Amino acid sequence: MAKRIDVSGLSAYYGSFRAIEDISMTVEPRSVTAFIGPSGCGKSTFLRTLNRMHEVTPGGRVDGKVMLDDENLYGAGVDPVAVRREVGMVFQRPNPFPTMSVYDNVAAGLRLNGSYKKSELSDVVEKSLKGANLWNEVKDRLNKPGSGLSGGQQQRLCIARAIAVEPKVLLMDEPCSALDPISTLAIEDLIGELKERFTIVIVTHNMQQAARVSDKTAFFNLAAVGQPGKLIEIDDTERIFSNPSVQATEDYISGRFG
Amino acid sequence: MDITTKNADTPPPAPQPTQVEQKRAARGATRPGDRIFLGLSRGSGILLLAIMAAIAIFLTYRATLAISKDDGNFLTTFEWNTNVTPPKFGIAVLAFGTIVSSIVAMVIAVPVAVAIALFLTHYAPRKLSGPIAYVIDLLAAVPSIVYGLWGALILVPNMNGLFGWLNDYLGWTGVFSWEEGAPRSMLTVGILLAIMILPVITNVSREVFRQTPRMNEEAALALGATRWEVIRMSVLPFGRSGVISASMLGLGRALGETMAVATVLSPSFLIETSLLDPGGGTFAQNIAAKFGEANEFGRDALIASGLVLFVITLVVNGAARAIIARRAEYSGANA
User: Fold this and answer.
1) Yes or no, beta carbons of A108 and B226 under 8 Å apart
2) Fewest Cβ atoms nearer than 10 Å: which of A11, A238, B91, B223?
3) Beta-carbon separation of A98 and B335 below 8 A
């Protein structure tokens, strides 16, 4: 069910500004790939091109190809709405729907996809909350607002919401940067479990996190402010953190950057 | 030393400044600016309450004078004769007309206003939404007598087609039957009021919708929501209480509207079951029509009717607040 992502020659623009240039990479199914790099290097922008969220930004547009198995996400006639149902996303700040209960938050995506019987819906909600390691904490308050949970719980609620629709790929944009260390650990454990079922791509500023959770790590950098960001290298995480093939990567991960 | 620099500029350095400062420190921060502002804001608050109380007392006093001499039942009498003895008057027709015309106005205006606001914030290209919003702002500034003239000269003569159609297809309900009178009825008034309150509801709703947190909209988008689904899942729930507030602003204007109603309606002291048959009246319209020729007692009676309008407005506002508060737990504000 998890799918391979194959990106080739991808550039993304904000108006006339080119934010990322000519990126090509392959992400294997059922693996975790981490994107690291300095702020402004385009890793979040790149992540958002993988589910066509980039073009939601005014002026956002993309050149190049993103293959999900053998379907080009940017092919003619591909509906971005359909793409986003296949490629789920978790954001930097937990963003449960504030007006919905815990239950409705998880069910939101399913309800978009069509009508479900009540029992089916309850089953999926329970399964997704269990999958996000949140069930035990919220099973007695499913009808309370999702915004009443703690930050870490909210983020796991967002993960539950994303996996409830059984996406092929799960994108995470710095999912732990607004969380405390304990909540972060909970999410990292969860990522380890989720990769059994999904292809996961995670952007992080925390290099220990990248080292802990990912199988592969991609390092992005930009030549100077105002220049487009580029993919410097992508390799096995172990290799990136021990013996990267590019000097810039080693400088960055050892803190000698800038 | 830094703090006393100003005072130390004039030699010899006297011990007084430090004493003043000790006093200040003891009482907390009370700089002159703070004291003036505190006095101003507190005074404004008290003044507002005093004015409200004065209005309430004035209205109640004059109203009591009139109602105590009313030969009919003030709440249920279908006539307004204050120049005869004993005087006989009641607000039944006015209350009915005011509420019905406002309901008609709200039913028409709120959905249209919300739709316009959504169009401006989520569908229209920016180049278009700016000018449209500006024009709507201008509409809100048109004096109500101008709307009234437009209503009487343009709207009323052109209502025959709609009225005939409603009578043909919905006349059997009784609410939309029409007996070929001039279309100076509650429906016409409601339509005119709807046009008048549209800009204010649109503008406030637009402001609210525009403040929908980007991350809530993206949450819906990332789940594979279409534009309409994004609006339904994040924009409308977030803007709900704001739209209610906006509608209340509009309703307040509709309830109290005077000149536009007076120029369009052909008043009578009858309750028409059909929205299309001419007749009826509203509080404000009745006051405007009768105040000029009313004697002292007649004016008191009109004031009594004004008091009822005041109470209705309060009740409506209270109800709106209750609706908002009931779902405060789920409001977008605590996200």
Assistant:
1) no
2) A238
3) yes
Record: contact B331-A84, CB cut-off 8 A: no
Whether chain A has a CB inside 8 Å of the CB on B335: the answer is yes
Least confident of A110-119, A182-191, B81-90, B163-172: A110-119
Q: What is the pTM of this model?
A: 0.81
Out of A84, A91, A99, name the one closest to residue B215 (CB).
Answer: A91
pLDDT tens readout for residues A52-67: 999 988 889 999 999 9
The reply to whether B215 touches chain A by the CB within 8 Å rule is: yes
Q: How much is the pLDDT for B25?
A: 54
- For A17, the domain range is 5-99+171-253
Query: Is it true that the peptide bond before B86 is cis, omega within 30 degrees of 0?
Result: yes
Instruction: Answer whether residue A40 is part of any domain.
Output: yes
Quickly list H helices, B235-330: 236-256, 259-264, 283-291, 296-326
- Domain-located, residue A107: no
Does residue B188 register a pLDDT over 80? yes
In three-state secondary structure terms, B334 is: helix
A84: nearest CB among B126, B224, B332: B224
Can you name the residues that pair with A234 across neighbouring β-strands? A218
Cβ-Cβ contacts under 8 Å for A75 (sequence gap 6 or more): none
Task: Say whether A98 and B220 touch across the interface (CB within 8 A).
Answer: no
CATH code for the domain in which residue A247 is found: 3.40.50.300
Instruction: Provide the number of structural domains found in chain A.
Output: 1
Instruction: List domains and CATH numbers for chain B.
Output: 88-334 (1.10.3720.10)
